[in-house]
């Protein structure tokens, strides 16, 4: 459970922004969305390879 103490004189918008940032870092929403549907290990592996190739291509373009 996340606890965000609101400081003296702090607006609720800033506290809400801190809460959202902290919640994003936990990764709960991402894992929840991943578990909504089963993904075969072979598909997961293929996606991982595609992502690695994309990142490598971006790094190669940046170094040129």
Provide a descriptive summary of the structure in words:
The protein has helices spanning 12-26, 28-34, 41-63. It is built from three helices and no strands. The termini are far apart. 0% of the residues are buried.
Please count the beta strands (DSSP E, at least 2 residues each). Answer: 0
> Order of helices and strands, N to C?
HHH
* Helix content, binned percent: over 70%
Bulk shape = flat
Helical stretch tally: 3
Distance between the termini: 47 Å
Our Rg estimate from Cα atoms comes to 19 Å
Proportion of residues in extended strands: under 5%
Q: What's the number of structural domains?
A: 1
Mean pLDDT: 94
Please outline the major beta sheet.
none
State the secondary-structure class. mainly alpha
- Low-pLDDT sequence parts: none
Concise summary:
The chain has 64 residues and is mainly α. The protein has helices at residues 12-26, 28-34, 41-63.
SSE inventory with pairings:
Elements: H1 12-26, H2 28-34, H3 41-63
Sum up the structure in keywords:
64 residues, mainly alpha, 3 helices
